[in-house]
Amino acid sequence: MKIRLSPSGWLAIAAVLILIAAGAFLFELKPVQSPPQWTEEATRNPYLAAGRLLEKRGFTVRYQPEIAAAPAKPGVLFLSLSSASLPDKAIAPLLAWVRQGNRLILPARLLGDEEGQVQDPLLPALGVVMHDQELEAAEHSLPDYSNDRRLLSGNADDGWLEAGFQGRLVLEDTTGKALRALEDGNGIHVLEYRLGDGRIVVVTETGLFTNQAITWKDNAALFLRLFGPASHEGEAQIVYGGHARGILELFWDWAWPLIISVFVLALALIWYGNSRFGPLLPSPDQPRRRLAEHLQAAGRYLWYAGRHQRLYNAVRQSLRRHIFRRHPQWRSLTDGDLIEELTLFTGLDSPALRQALADAPTHDLARFVQDMRVLHQLRKLT
């Protein structure tokens, strides 16, 4: 059976074949590897994999986010940050600990000195100088540093290693006292010095030994070479953090333009809010209060301020003036005789009159109300 296609059918088939060929030429299927799922411990400690490697080589490993004093046990101390992050009081004990035959591994940090000197409290006596090859090449119009950034060579017995040094930062031994220097085509990246019976190892980068980079090239072999052989008496201590920077410090370092902009905007809003447009509105008329309200408010204030004695004296003196004005013959009487005359004249209870008119007042609201009621009745009856 033969299938016959019209010219438009053949054109459609040809167009489909052309599209398939173009898609195969333009698009390429590539496998995508999902990022590794780190455990909580590995996320917190970037040198966990390096520590596991040391444990397999016989080391007893202890991790610390920061260090405030020299280790209590002999062994090896690895600092992921410059010793400039250590407290000043910890420098001298740490050097004494190294002199006892221990090993200290720390990175050299380039802190922006014009001559490239490493401003680190543990390194000036060693004579270590850090050079930024990219910066020096730009300042002196020198050719770019070598592209050979991974091939690391040391002493003849050490052999060759391929490590992932960037090549931009290199070290220089100005005293010639280094026991070992590991270098590549760009320069020296590792220097080892003797201090007493111990060793100080200076390395340009410690990021080669993190969880993400320890498996690259020969980074793991280099890490083990820096630590040396394991000791049954000591331990390997890895300090994976340093000074914990506060949220304000981080904001200023990474978002200072935003902070300044917000500050300027706040000043502009304050200025705008304080500006006035148009004439001032007259103050609304406040309703006048009655004299009784003022007296009541003054009495309430005196009572809660502990001035009850003043309230009693004012009422008693006013009442005495009223009584003596109505009955002048009672002016020469004592308080006791006056109270007896008032009892006979008004028929009020004598103890209640004595308490209200003569006894020392107390800061008791119930008694105050009762006394004021008796004095008010006394005024009405006299």
Automatic annotation (TrEMBL):
SUPFAM superfamilies attached to this UniProt entry: Class I glutamine amidotransferase-like
- Transmembrane recorded as keyword: yes
Domain DUF4350 stretches: 41-226
**A Pfam family recorded for this sequence:** DUF4350
- List the InterPro entries: Class_I_gatase-like (IPR029062), DUF4350 (IPR025646)
Listed A to Z, the keywords are:
Membrane, Transmembrane, Transmembrane helix
Q: Where are the transmembrane segments?
A: 254-273
Instruction: Provide the protein name.
Output: Uncharacterized protein DUF4350
Organism annotation: Fluviicoccus keumensis
